[in-house]
Protein: PH domain-containing protein
Amino acid sequence: MAGEDVARAAADWLVLTFADWLTFCVAGCTRTDMLESQSVTWCQFCRQTPSGDHGSTSDLEPLHQLEAILPEYEHIVCSYEHLQEGGFNASLKLKLSTQDEVQEWLEAFQASSKTTWRVQKTYPNTPESIRHNKYRVDLRCQRGGRNPSSKKNTFCPAVLYLVLKKDTFSQSRKSRSNDPHIQDCLSFHIKIRSTHNHEINCSEALQYRHVSKETIKKIEKLFESGHSPSSALNTLKYDLQEEMGESYVLASADRSVCPDLHFCFRLYYNI
Ligand SMILES: [Zn+2]
Ligand SMILES: [Zn+2]
Structure:
C-alpha cells in the first residue's frame, strides 16, 4: 500500500472513530429514536407470559384499546386492568427525559384521547424528592373536581399521574437505580385511571376542550398577517374544511382546533 493510501485509510478510520465517539457521547436517554412512530407494546420487565405468546387475542386487546387513545410515541405497557364498572387502569412508560417533553406528550395525549386534563396536585422539589424525580404532577379529567356549580362537571373520577424519574446518567455511580426501566431509559412513568363517566367523542364534550397550542399559533400568525379576530376565525374554519373534508362537522365542534369568536377576541387583545 502506498504511503498516501495508508494515510487516507488512517484518516478515514479517525473520522469513523470520532463519529462513533460522538454517537457514544450523545447516546443516553434521548428521544431521537422514537419520533414519528406509534407503538404500544408490553413491558419486557413486568409482563411475563409463561408461553412467551404475546400474540394471543387476550394479550393484544389491551394494546389495541390503548392504541386508540395514545399519541404517536413508543409506549411500554407495564400493567393493564380492565375495570368492571367500565374503563381501565394502566401503567405505561416512555423514553422521555425532560419536563418539556412531558408537556409535549400531554398536549399530544389530550388531542389523541379527545380529553382535557387539569392539574390536581403538584409536587414541589425537595432535597429528598429531587434525588428520585425530575418532575411529578397529578391531573384529573376537566369534568371532575369539587366545583358542583360548574355546568360541565360530571364529577368524573378519571385521573392521570405523571412522574419523570431521574435517569441513570444524571446520577453518580453509587446511587444508580436498580430499576431495569430506568436503566433502559424509560424515565417517564404514567399511571392512568380511564374511568370517564361522560361521553368523550360527542360534540358536547369537545366544545369544552382547551384550545390547543397549535391552533393558537395558527391564529396568531393570521393576526400577524393583518387578520381581525373574525376574519382569522373564518380563515381557520375554511382551512379546517379543506383539511378535514367530510370530518369537518365533527372537527368544527372541537374547541381545541376550532375555538369560538370570543376566544379569538381575547387572544387578539392580549397580543
Ligand atoms: Zn415495566
Ligand atoms: Zn372524564
Remarks:
- DSSP finds nine helices and seven strands in the chain.
- Confidence is low (pLDDT under 50) at residues 14-27, 30-36.
- The pocket of zinc ion (ligand 2) is lined by residues 141, 143, 156, 158, 196, 198 (CB under 6 Å).
